[in-house]
C-alpha cells in the first residue's frame, strides 16, 4: 500500500464570509456537515494512517528568514491506498466539498532514502 498526504482546502475569504452567516443558521449547517463527515469517516476509516487535524496560521521560511503568509489549507490527513487514483477517488463526494470553492488535494508520499 502507498501512503498519501491529503489536504483539505477552502479560500479564507469563503470562510470569512461564512462566519458572517446568521449564527443559528450557521450552527445548523455546521452540525449537518459534521454528521455527514462522521459518517464518511466511519465508511472510510480503514484507509486512514493518521486522521489528521486542523492547521493554524502559516509561517514561510526561506533563505531570508521566516515571515507570515497565508494558504488555503484547513486540515490534513494521511491515508493508504493501492494507487494515487484510488486514494483520490475515495474523496470524491466528501462532505468538505460542500464548502464553496473548496477542494481536497491528494499527494503520494515518497520516503527519502537514508532518512
Would you kindly provide a written description of the structure presented here, covering whatever features stand out?
- The chain has a single domain (2-108), classed as Dimeric alpha+beta barrel (Alpha-Beta Plaits, 2-Layer Sandwich), CATH 3.30.70.1060.
- The strands form 2 sheets. It has a 4-stranded antiparallel beta sheet.
- It has helices spanning 12-19, 23-44, 84-90, and strands at 2-9, 48-54, 58-62, 65-69, 73-81, 103-108.
- With 115 residues, it is of the alpha+beta class.
- The longest helix is centred in the first third of the chain and has 22 residues, at 23-44.
- The chain has 3 helices and 6 strands, in the order E-H-H-E-E-E-E-H-E.
Q: Can you tag this structure with a few keywords?
A:
6 strands, single chain, two-stranded antiparallel sheet, alpha+beta
Amino acid at each position: 500500500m502507498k501512503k498519501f498526504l491529503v489536504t483539505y482546502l477552502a479560500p479564507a475569504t469563503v470562510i470569512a464570509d461564512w462566519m458572517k452567516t446568521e449564527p443559528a443558521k450557521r450552527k445548523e449547517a455546521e452540525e449537518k456537515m459534521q454528521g455527514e463527515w462522521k459518517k464518511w469517516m466511519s465508511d472510510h476509516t480503514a484507509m486512514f494512517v493518521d486522521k489528521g487535524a486542523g492547521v493554524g496560521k502559516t509561517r514561510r521560511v526561506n533563505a531570508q528568514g521566516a515571515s507570515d503568509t497565508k494558504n488555503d489549507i484547513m486540515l490534513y490527513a494521511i491515508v493508504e491506498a493501492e494507487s494515487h487514483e484510488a486514494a483520490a477517488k475515495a474523496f470524491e463526494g466528501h462532505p468538505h466539498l460542500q464548502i464553496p470553492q473548496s477542494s481536497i488535494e491528494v499527494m503520494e508520499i515518497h520516503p527519502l532514502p537514508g532518512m
